[in-house]
Design brief:
It is a single chain. With 187 residues, the chain is α/β, with parallel strands linked by helices. It has one domain: Glucose-6-phosphate isomerase like protein, domain 1 (Rossmann fold, 3-Layer(aba) Sandwich). The chain starts with a helix and ends in a 5-residue tail after the last helix.
C-alpha cells in the first residue's frame, strides 16, 4: 500500500471480515459477568497491551450506568510491579498466568489480545485460565496462531499488517463498550 487512502480502504474491508456473531457472544459474556459480579481480566503485549489497558478503562468507566452494576475489570498489563517481578524472578512467559492464579476464580473472564496469536505469555495465560475454569476470549490477527485453539471465543482480524490488526481490535473494543451501554439488565 502506498497511500493513506489505500491503508484505510484495506482496513475498511477488514471490518466486513469480522465474525460479528462471535463479537455479539463476547458482549453477552461480558454482560453476564457484569450482572453476576464476575471479574474480567485483560492483557496483551506492546500495542495489544495498550489495547487491553484502554479496554479496561472503557469497560470500567465508559459503561457506568446509574442503575446497573459496574464492571470489575482488571488490566494485568497495568500491574507493573507484579509484571516485572514475575518477568525478572520467574519468566516473562508467566507475567499474566501468575496473577490469574492469584486473583481469578471459576466463572471470571480472561481476555487476551495478541496480533500474532503466538505470544508465549498470552498462551500460558489462556492455558492457566482454562485450568482455573475461567472463560477465555482471544483477539488475534494473521491466521489466529496457537491462541485460536486455546480459547473458547476467538475473534480474528485476518490481516498480516500489525497496525491494522491493532486498529481493528481497538475499534471492536470501543464498539463492544457502546453496545454494553445499551444492553438492559436481564434481571
Amino acid at each position: 500500500m502506498n497511500t493513506l487512502k489505500e491503508y484505510f480502504e484495506i482496513e475498511a474491508k477488514l471490518f466486513n471480515k469480522i465474525a460479528l456473531d462471535k463479537v455479539d457472544q463476547v458482549i453477552a459474556q461480558l454482560e453476564q459477568a457484569r450482572v453476576e459480579g464476575r471479574r474480567v481480566f485483560v492483557f496483551g503485549n506492546g500495542g495489544s497491551g495498550s489495547t487491553a489497558s484502554h479496554f479496561a478503562c472503557d469497560l470500567g468507566k465508559g459503561t457506568v450506568q446509574p442503575t446497573r452494576p459496574r464492571f470489575k475489570v482488571i488490566s494485568l498489563v497495568d500491574m507493573m510491579p507484579t509484571l516485572t517481578a514475575y518477568a525478572n524472578d520467574v519468566s516473562f512467559d508467566s507475567v499474566f498466568a501468575e496473577p490469574l492464579i492469584t486473583h481469578a476464580q471459576r466463572g471470571d473472564l480472561a481476555i487476551g489480545f495478541s496480533g500474532s496469536g503466538n505470544s508465549p505469555n498470552i498462551l500460558r495465560a489462556m492455558e492457566t485460565a482454562n485450568k482455573l475454569g475461567v472463560a477465555t476470549i482471544g483477539f488475534s490477527g494473521f491466521a489466529g496462531g496457537k491462541m485460536k485453539d486455546l480459547v473458547e471465543q476467538h475473534i480474528n482480524v485476518p490481516s498480516d499488517l500489525m497496525a491494522q490488526i491493532e486498529d481493528v481490535h481497538l475499534a471492536l473494543t470501543h464498539a463492544m463498550c457502546e453496545m454494553l451501554k445499551l444492553h438492559h439488565d436481564p434481571h
